[in-house]
Amino acid sequence: MEGQRIAGKYRLARLLGRGGMGSVWLAEHLSLRTPVAIKLIDVEAAKNATARARFDREAQIAARIRSAHVVKVLDHGLTDDGLPYIAMECLAGESLRDRLSARRRLTPAETAKIVSHICRALSRAHEVGLVHRDIKPENIFIAREDDGEIVKILDFGVAKVTDALAITGMDPTRTGALLGTPYYMSPEQARGLKSVDYRSDLWSLGVVVFECLTGARPFTAPALGPLIAKILGTPPPALSAAAPGAGIPVEVEAWMRKALAVEPDARFASARELSEAFMVASGVADSMDRGSSAGLPDGKPPSAVRPPDGVWETADTVALPSGDGRAPVAAAPQPPVAATPQPPVAAAPQPPVAPLSSATGPGAVAAARPVAPARVLVWAVVLLAIALLAVSGVLAATLLR
């Protein structure tokens, strides 16, 4: 298909990857001469009405979410053969799966950026009634932009619309279907319940965080049945046991237990709360130069209650140490400056402060201080001099008469 034109506007350059429903190609916009990514559905998949509807919904849903942390959909239409395509922004970088494959695990600070950015995207999606339902390292992309990195969510193909009026037409991800990658499915997804909501995404993100910190998934099994049994009835292993030498703070252990709680009501109440709690638990919020709340989505201290819905900023708040993943360069320590010795200065003795008397109530402004004897003597001399002057004046007036 290399060199093929799509809808008279794009020319396919090379294959970037294949998925369960189709392929993604690097392409060129013919009139703008700019690179784009074209997602094409497979011919066989296009014959399936459900698969085709899912493909179309992915474009509609991604276009609705206004976030720098969701891959941008630029165009959607049909090829000359009548197959749907999606034109998306062309990203340079790697998926989280690729990074974990190369490095096995990430530091708490690096994981904090993943959490912060993904929670921004999830918050926007949840605000408009969308549940992704397939959060996993393959659908998290770490894109290089300018001198830094930004994390984006891909593939809303299995997203669930919780707002019935949001998108009309058939829901190809019908309620009760077992959708999503099994290792990252929430307990309610594994049960096939109708009550799957945004907290399912938070559980899946907890599994992603576990894998980032330890290099392993919390729940594994040789078959789907035993895996679901573990997800529903086995507590996740301790992070310290899964990665003994990773130096994971003990506070993150408590965070993980809440993130992976079986019952949705026992989890974090929102993506924002989950993100804030991880910033504090991992120590990132307390170690940044910008203060104890640095790294939080809106710069405010975390709250134990569910925050009100609102608009989040889209700028990075927790930066990876560097674009290539290296640790930040520490400032060179400065030699201490020897202080010039100064002669000690004796403090002037202060008169004792009289305690408040029992008659002085709580509203009293100040307690009475004892008057120094020298001050009494001075005032006595002054008053005596004034009296003598007055007497002298009276005698002088009398003699002049």
UniProtKB/TrEMBL annotation:
Annotated protein name in UniProt: Serine/threonine-protein kinase
Alphabetical list of Gene3D superfamilies matching this protein: Phosphorylase Kinase, domain 1, Transferase(Phosphotransferase) domain 1
Segments of this protein annotated with the region Disordered: 289-362
Protein kinase domain location: 10-279
Transmembrane segments annotated in the record for this chain: 376-400
Binding site for ATP: 39
GO molecular function, one term: kinase activity
